[in-house]
Specification:
The protein is α+β, with helices and mostly antiparallel strands. Helix content is about 40%, strand content about 20%.
Length: about 300
Amino acid sequence: MEKMGEGFKGEKAIVTPYGIRRMQEQNPITRQLFVTHIGYYPDARSHYRERDGGCPENVLIYCERGLGWVKFGNERYTLGPNNAFILPAGRPHAYGADDADPWSIYWLHFRGERVDMFAGIIARLIDIRESDRSRYSDRFSLFEEMYRNLEMGYSPDNLEYVSFCLMHFLASLKYVNQFREIKTIRGDDLVQAGIAYMKDHLEQALTLEDIASSVGYSPSHFSALFSKRTSFAPMEYYNSLKIQRACSYLQFSTLKIKEIAFRLGYYDQFHFSKAFRGEMGLAPKEYRKRYWAPGLCR
């Protein structure tokens, strides 16, 4: 049996669709290690989770600030700032925030064929010592890159990049000294600019012409470039991002399903539910029942 505490203000999370997980399991790159859930819980007062049967994925918890605890095996571990713990898949566990000084945590679930590469840091307290080269903010930025890329959609390039970021993030915990010597640079392009425009206008009825015009391309030229880069047509990608926004509303708001459908530009609730089920593998009502965070709705 699984028990969990209520949600709390400011949290964010992404749960990947089951169809995307099957895609990740088949891709020779992503099947090595891939993310299934990812999020950030700030000042997570009353945060609590107990899984008597464990979790299908490995669960990583990284404490940014505050205090919390993890119970695994016969041990109880206290986590403070820049402590982390990876709970192995399929093993009973519990964790929660300290009552007096609740933690803020980055967390994710992951699995894959090469989890064994990081066996040395699983099921033990990871303490990232303070140093003039700590690079704490770089590690958080790397986590945010995983989140932002999944937030931008599930193209093969995005999923592969997230898998490599996951390996890099786990490596930063295993090879602390080496990580402190690494510097990374990241840039944007027209396809990314188009996706950013889509994200900024998810609650409008954009056309292909609107999106292409935002980056100064003709619809045909932009569509060809976008499809080559992402393996999705622009409007297909845009609709996928709408469903991702719908997931956030279902999980973190009290909006009714018909209100979410209207807000995201669907003809009616039936059209929205059909699109949602096609993308996520379950109906909006079922998704809310499974993932809703009631603490946000008090």
